[in-house]
Amino acid sequence: MQLSKRKYTNALLGFILLIISLSMAIPVLYAVVTSFKFENEIIGSSPTFFPRKFTLTNYQYIFDHKDVYLRYYYNSIIITIFSVLINTVLATMMGYAFARLAFKGRDTILGFILFIITFPLAVLLIPIYIMEYEAGLLNTHLGLILPNVTTILPFSVFIMRGIFKSIPIELEQSAEIDGASVFQTWWKVMLPIGINGVSITIIYGFYNIWGEYILAKTLATKASAMPLTVGLTLLKGEGWNYGILGAVIFLAILPPIIIFVIFQKQLVEGLTRGAIKG
Amino acid sequence: MTKLRSKARVKARMGMFFTLPGLIFVIAFMIYPLFTSLYYSFTNYNYVYDVKPIFNGFQNYIAAFQDETFVLTIKNTLVFASTFFVSVMILGLVTALLLFYFKGKDNLYKTLIFMPIVVPLSLAAILFNWIFAENFGLLNFIIGDVFKLTQFTYGWLTNRVTAMGAIVSVTTWSSLGFITILFLAGLQGISGDILEAAKIDGAGTIGTIFKIILPNLRETYVITGIWAILRGLKIYAPPVVMTGGAPGNATRVMYMHIYDNAFEFFEMGYASALGFILSVIVLSISFVNLKINSSKGD
């Protein structure tokens, strides 16, 4: 009696979870399935969820108009890769210093950075825009990479600081006894053990910059310089063909999904490996 | 002894060396802009017409509160942020509790619930624009064609209330996965002993949730709370992409007003002042959240 009641409750929980999961997934799935439909099926009189006739014409269209669509992807890829790369180097260095290398004023700097990130980007945007206008950096990749790095750096530093702090100090001391310099200790001991933290930093940075909108909208005013978060919103006004829209969105979320799949394994491995060695 | 001290000195020097590159970024793109913007907020500075900023005291701040549209955007932002906060916190907590208590395979559920995290907010807005579209939108399709309730199909984005609701729903949709992860981590952090003790005392599941679990999640409320508050008050992409502030100014938010003043009209001084008013609101609400959740019961 008791047992079967528990079973029913569990089934009910599962059912509610199923409904929540579906309502979370349907918007994305709908875009994906629509991208494989012909236009007359999308706006026809009796639409269905799944395509009745499968087609790749919408993808064909995107590749036929590559100056418009693929340019945004190219910009997004360049901006994201370089920002994440620079951020990861800076954050692993700074995180190590904040965790293990005490110097005068260190905690003040840390506290100040913590305070400053609560300010909305809106107040920083105006001087950044003027600065970049005068330096000729508007509508360039570099002009977006530099401020993008800065927006993800503080939190990345906190991630790396936490990871480095959790590594037993004895490991560092034994490296020092073996005659390793501070730089060697960081590169050969701390980074390999803290690799899971590096993965988290990369994922965090990737998602944030791939999806970044406000900096891009402000600093890239020409279509040729826009990443896809901004570029695709402009196409909205041009009498959207929903099939193409679905295809474009599917292509736009593919890289974050790939990144997640790649690093998920490494995250788990990194965690266990770190635990065994530590 | 001297060897130890010199080692500490080497470490301090290396510490500065390791901090410097990142610090240059922070100074150039955070600290310098923050103080420059603060200065601009006390000046009259149109980037197109004025050669340089002209100091005008508190005039921008006074003008801001006489600007009816801006006052309306404060109201809209607060309405949006509080609706979003309540919906994402409750849904996130409930979803995390369901996952916590559900016994069985939950990997698929988790994957689907976390999936929207990979969709950039501005693209999610395009997606929801389409879902809420009057013609050929998914929502009207479900209501009209699946449930045959054609009288309830609607122009969701052209009505004041439902337009705001649509913006809340896309932001909630895109944030729910992350909030759920944080709540789930918080739930898993509650020690099994406490839950076991509650069970031995004869507390039912509902009693345990309200008496033991919810009060023990205080640290998680601080993090999820601050995240939801910041995301709510800094909302920008969804209203821009979905409604452009329409109908009327019903979905016009503070961030939009700041942005338009700065980069449509190039009123850099006035826009900076508006930015600092938003900052004060963000900082004070975040502070209240921190106070409420850290003082209770200590």
Could you explain the architecture of this structure?
The complex is a heterodimer of chains A (278) and B (298). Chain A is mainly α and 278 residues long. Chain A has 2 domains: 2-34; 65-277, MetI-like fold (Orthogonal Bundle). Chain A contains 13 helices and no strands. Chain A has helices at residues 2-34, 39-42, 57-64, 69-100, 106-116, 121-135, 141-166, 169-177, 182-193, 195-210, 214-219, 228-234, 242-277. With 298 residues, chain B is mainly alpha-helical. Chain B has a single domain (68-295), classed as MetI-like fold (Orthogonal Bundle), CATH 1.10.3720. In chain B, 74% of the residues lie in helices and 1% in strands. Chain B has a two-stranded antiparallel ribbon. The longest helix of chain B is centred in the first third of the chain and has 39 residues, at 2-40. At the A-B interface, helix 1, helix 4, helix 5, helix 6 and helix 7 of A face helix 1, helix 3, helix 4, helix 5 and helix 6 of B.
